[in-house]
Amino acid sequence: MPKAAPSKAVAGKPLHKFYVDYSVPAADNVFDPAAFEKFLHDRIKVDGKPGQLGEVIAIGKEGNKLVLTSQIPFSKRYLKYLTKKHLKKNNFENFLRVVATAKDTYSLRYFKVDQDEAEDEE
Predict the structure, then answer these.
(1) Packing angle of the helix pair 76-89, 33-43 (nearest 10 deg)
(2) In terms of Cα–Cα distance, which of 47, 50, 51, 52 is closest to 72?
(3) CA–CA separation, 35 vs 29, rounded Å?
């Protein structure tokens, strides 16, 4: 009995599709989506080599969301790691955070600062 070939994604159908919603900071003109897209393109590693996405990973925009489509296994956690690395690089880590809002979606949100408690302490 012959062995079955390892299953791979069909060329037209993505194996993974992830979204990063940056609508909140982009509405305040704090976040630069083009710089974020370039950062991901330069930093995502395929076969141990950064920036060589080829045909297997595609990065695009849909409104205020970045869409990452992968034909190969891709970790949602790796996308969060790279997003946090971009926030740290641009000194956004003190007031923006990455929150999972759905199974395939991350969202950039502001930290909640309760000003009533700050006034009571003073």
Answers:
(1) 120
(2) 47
(3) 13
Collapsing DSSP to helix, strand or coil, 45 comes out as strand
3-state SS class at 114? coil
Dihedral of the CA atoms 78, 84, 89, 91 (nearest 10)?
A: 180
pLDDT tens digits, the chain, 122 residues: what are they?
455 445 554 556 778 899 999 999 998 998 899 999 999 999 999 988 998 888 999 999 999 999 999 999 999 999 999 999 999 999 998 999 999 999 999 999 998 876 655 555 55
Q: How far apart are CA 118 and CA 37, in angstroms?
A: 37
